[in-house]
């Protein structure tokens, strides 16, 4: 359904449904003992860790350094709480984010699942041209080295900018409501073929995460 590796623009409200999607995406890789990378801009890494703890033995994965955070959230708030799996980088310093990403790619085990939470947040600190370069160089480099990357964007983000971001990524995943049911629409090119799917969130989870 979602090819690997690829880049996916995830459009939706910053609610529990998007959080559940992202947590399952990361937890699915951790269950397979794969490397993961989470870039936080709008959320404290410790909140992410707490959410993942409902799905996996997160303390064990932290101990084994199977998950790493680039923490732009705390850096923007002048908090200093780095540790073995959390690296503080200000969201304006995309070059440093890129440099640390390159360090991850230089290791034998490279990140297979990556989340950017969120591009909307990064855009408050960077110009559209900087964000475009970040997607092209940093995110593109992750994909070339075997990562599937979710790039989160808030639903109320500027429509023109969202359209530009869709062009820069391989696929778009949209979380939305139909008759009080949470739906996932997925569309984009897979091996040069246009793919369009819509299904209930639970059905998507069953097909993508529980196989």
Write structural notes for this entry.
With 211 residues, the protein is α/β, with parallel strands linked by helices. The chain has a domain at 13-156: P-loop containing nucleotide triphosphate hydrolases (Rossmann fold). 41% of the residues lie in helices and 27% in strands. It is built from nine helices and nine strands. The chain has a nine-stranded mixed β-sheet, sandwiched between helices. Helix 5 packs parallel to helix 7. The longest helix has 17 residues, at 128-144. The protein is globular. The model has no long low-confidence stretch (mean pLDDT 94).
Quickly describe the structure.
By secondary structure, the chain is an alpha/beta fold. It has helices at residues 16-31, 45-52, 58-63, 72-76, 94-105, 119-122, 128-144, 159-168, 201-208, and strands at 7-12, 36-40, 67-71, 86-88, 113-117, 148-154, 171-178, 181-190, 193-200. It has nine helices and nine strands.
Q: Which helices and strands occur, and which strands form pairs?
A:
Layout: E1 7-12, H1 16-31, E2 36-40, H2 45-52, H3 58-63, E3 67-71, H4 72-76, E4 86-88, H5 94-105, E5 113-117, H6 119-122, H7 128-144, E6 148-154, H8 159-168, E7 171-178, E8 181-190, E9 193-200, H9 201-208
Parallel strand pairs: 1-6, 1-7, 2-3, 2-5, 3-4, 5-6
Antiparallel strand pairs: 7-8, 8-9
Q: Keyphrases for this structure?
A:
globular, 9 helices, alpha/beta, 211 residues, 9-stranded mixed beta sheet, Rossmann fold
